[in-house]
Amino acid sequence: MQIIEDVGEMRRWSETERCAGRRIVFVPTMGFLHDGHLSLVREGKKRGDRLVVSIFVNPAQFGPNEDFAAYPRDPGRDRELLEKEKVDLLFSPSADAMYPKNSQAYVEVEQLSRPLCGPFRPGHFRGVATVVTKLLNIVRPHAALFGEKDYQQLQVVRRLVRDLNLDVEIVGHPTVREKDGLAMSSRNSYLNGEERNAALSLYRSLQKAESLVRQGQRESRRIVEVAEAEIGKEPLARVEYIEVCDPESLEPVEIVGERALLALAVRIGKTRLIDNIILQVEK
């Protein structure tokens, strides 16, 4: 596996591969890799000739009171995992390389950044949109993969690619879960044993909501109440939001039509976890 840290070298590599007619697939990550990331890697290998994975903990998407300094990092282990998956190239730039001194330009996807996590993480999606735009311009992939666990992020990326006419296919990949249903996340490493057990309430709440819809319930208010009640059984859990919304616009809906997104954010102790499910109405 080739490792590149320099932005210019990364661009030259991509230009060489493109000129040779090879299709580049890209998986951006913040490292501390788990099976969710590796599922993106495996899917990416099926979709092109060259697979690039980036590891960059993006300071621009962390607020002043968030966990940038504490965010888990293990670059040696990450490299070993990627080599086992036969990744072609690891792009691992420094913060100075990505944000040179006196950087002033940012990318913002206004409407999609406002709901759900938006009020709780001001500036977060501006940081996401900016770094993704920069990475896509540097790596120049034909396709890039993002996990559906971060559903709002995925929609923000899709919108910026469409609105800015970027020549890349954005592929969403289903959420990968532990055997007990907990959505895989690097932040799960923050949880102690008691908190890890309490975190299962997120998935249980989604399952109960999905079951309610299958039984014929269409009122979003009632669906949210059931999900909230399930999480409320855990004393370590504190709900930030539970919302039923349109899967494309992320605007709240009062009645579930053919399909809707149920998204939630919950703090388990000091750890903030997110999860979601698409509610499908069977015809």
Summarize the structure.
This protein has 283 residues and is α/β, with parallel strands linked by helices. The protein has 2 domains: 2-173, HUPs (Rossmann fold), CATH 3.40.50; 186-275, Pantoate--beta-alanine Ligase, Chain: A,domain 2 (2-Layer Sandwich), CATH 3.30.1300. Strand 3, helix 3 and strand 4 (89-91) form a beta-alpha-beta unit.
Can you describe what's shown?
This protein has 283 residues and is an alpha/beta fold. It has 9 helices and 9 strands. A 6-stranded parallel beta sheet has the order 1-4-3-2-5-6, sandwiched between helices. The radius of gyration is 19 Å and the shape is globular. The mean pLDDT is 97.
Index terms:
283 residues; alpha/beta; Rossmann fold; six-stranded parallel sheet; three-stranded antiparallel sheet; 9 helices; 9 strands
Total of DSSP H or I helical runs spanning 4+ residues: 9
Give the end-to-end Cα distance, rounded to a whole number of Å: 48 Å
| Shape category | globular
Number of separate strands: 9
**Any low-confidence stretches, pLDDT <50, length ≥5?**
none
Give the class-level CATH name of the largest domain.
Alpha Beta
Order of helices and strands: EHEHEHEHHEHEHHHEEE
CATH superfamily of the largest domain: HUPs
Our count of domains comes out at: 2
The average pLDDT is 97
Q: Helix share of residues?
A: 25-40%
CATH architecture of the largest domain: 3-Layer(aba) Sandwich
The main sheet comes to: 6 strands, parallel
SSE blueprint:
Elements: E1 2-4, H1 7-19, E2 24-29, H2 35-46, E3 50-55, H3 75-84, E4 89-91, H4 95-98, H5 124-139, E5 143-147, H6 151-163, E6 169-173, H7 193-198, H8 200-214, H9 220-232, E7 237-245, E8 259-268, E9 271-280
Parallel strand pairs: 1-4, 2-3, 2-5, 3-4, 5-6
Antiparallel strand pairs: 7-8, 8-9
Helix pairs in contact: 5-6, 8-9
